[in-house]
Amino acid sequence: MKNNQYSLADIEAAVSAGALDREAYIALAQYLTNHAPEALETEKFTLFRGMNDIFLALGITVLSIGWFILWGLYSNDAVFWIAPLVAIAGFVVLAEYVAGKLKATLPSIVIMVSLCATLMIYAVMLYMRIVGTSAEFFNLDDVWSFGSTSVNTALLVAIIGFAFQVGFFLRYRLPVSFALIAFGIVGVLWSLLLTAFGQSLNQYLDYMITLTGLLLLALGVVVDTKDPKRVNGWAECAFWLYVIGAPMTIHSVAALFDAAALVMIPVIIIAMLFSLFLDRRSPIISGLIYVGYLANSGFNQAAIDPSITVALVCFVVGGLVMAFGFGWQKARHIVLSPFEDQNWRRYLPPS
């Protein structure tokens, strides 16, 4: 069945093709603009377009699980080495059709994850053969054990993953790949540091996660400000940068300071203002998790029955989510109205 929903860009293409008069197009565009209802949703989320995308993603997920189970049953023989190449070819064919032709985001993400995992595991196997340890493993469990104890393997996996995401994004323009490219750059740098200085750097892991999250958020802001009206695909790339960067930043800060109220309350307030200024909900969602945590701590200190505490926390968090859901645009207008005359205001979405 053909899609019968048309945008102004589609109608303008009809004008260029001679199917519609230019004056009629201008009058139609003006009419639609004047009578268009106010947008209630300004943060587009196109993870799936309908049940068919979910259906495809479910099928590909089940097939991928079956593939990894089957691969794990093989030992160090010819099939163990050849089967992954067949699987990689199959995933590439699927990617060409699903990501390249159908442009289905959710199934494409499943294919991306499965293909990337297969490539990285196979790269570790090849590395083990090159360094002369391939005789010591017989299945994927042995490969995993080797990979988890080798710093050089971590660097190899980071480089393979980064290169894969670059290629996948350039080929299919999948927005989540753009965010993973940024994440991969930091992963490669962290792996290089581990290779140079050893496992002693693990004590700084929370700091590294915080820095990574802040870098992803900063990149998201840069991308977002290039397109404040969110009319091109880069806005969705920024969306995924926030989705990955916000929880990394907030959760790692909580881990560093044991989710202390004196730290988390300012962090939550900053996350809320950040979300409202940029019209992005991901940071505020991550912050609301710790609103629940702090509320739970407060109710426990008040010696309230644990069962009642759970209910009260649900009421607090649920009420805040609903309040932001119903009053999001109003809250943005209140926060941003004092800055309407500022030059930097044009880089933010309209309120």
UniProtKB/TrEMBL annotation:
The alphabetized UniProt keywords are: Membrane, Transmembrane, Transmembrane helix
The portions of this protein that span the membrane are 54-74, 80-99, 106-130, 150-170, 177-198, 204-222, 234-253, 259-278, 285-304, 310-328
Q: What is this protein called?
A: DUF2157 domain-containing protein
Q: Which organism is it from?
A: Thalassospira lohafexi
